[in-house]
Write a structure and sequence with these properties.
With 201 residues, this protein is mainly α. It has one domain. The chain contains 9 helices and no strands. The longest helix is centred in the middle third of the chain and has 26 residues. The chain is globular.
Length: 201
């Protein structure tokens, strides 16, 4: 007979030699940092899916904010204020994720949007990775350039993070969500500042 079954076409010994599909092994924290800084979509997808990465995202935010506090010395600030930067950054991170969640999932969603607040906290947290270079700002003459580069880099990372967390196919939509979120976050921060700042006589 010319026709053969699949079993006859592939020898049994050969079947045992076919390698099994490798199990997924998550990247290390360092690899995730490098990937997030490189704007690697696969890293943001991995972090989005890993519910255990929230603590890592928090560490990223703290490290980036502490670096910003060190770099701010170049503006004439005190390095003692670095812990305050960390506290403010953590509050901003949580607030920004919440605002982005509301805007992205309720105001500007797509048919593919499936997101939780935790997913946004993780992806947005890792988007703060480029902020770690702001610590170089303490060196004379580098303060302004370093902070400009770090800020732009973080904004681009934020767009990448939001796009993948909200399952957008369009970068323009991700930019739109970020812009709306930034405006609302700044407005809320300004309002809180007016409410809780000491009265000026």
């Amino acid at each position: 007979m010319l026709a053969q079954t699949d079993a006859e076409e592939v020898p049994a010994s050969a079947v045992h030699n076919i390698p099994r599909m490798a199990e997924f092994v998550p990247n290390s924290f360092l690899q995730r940092l490098i990937g997030a800084a490189a704007l690697d979509p696969a890293i943001y997808e991995e972090v989005e899916a890993d519910s255990g990465a929230l603590s890592q995202a928090m560490i990223v935010v703290v490290l980036a904010s502490l670096s910003g506090g060190v770099g701010a010395v170049g503006f004439g600030g005190s390095i003692a204020a670095a812990p305050l930067f960390a506290v403010v950054a953590l509050m901003s991170w949580a607030s920004w994720a919440l605002v982005t969640f509301e805007v992205g999932s309720r105001v500007m969603p797509t048919a593919d949007t499936r997101v939780s607040l935790g997913q946004l906290l993780r992806t947005i947290g890792f988007a703060a990775t480029p902020g770690m270079i702001s610590g170089l700002g303490f060196m004379p003459g580098l303060t302004v350039p370093v902070f400009i580069v770090a800020s732009v880099w973080m904004l681009v990372a934020m767009v990448v993070a939001v796009r993948h967390a909200l399952d957008f196919k369009s970068t323009a939509r991700a930019v739109g969500v970020c812009v709306v979120g930034w405006v609302l976050a700044i407005g809320i921060a300004a309002l809180l500042g007016l409410l809780f700042s000491p009265a000026v006589s």
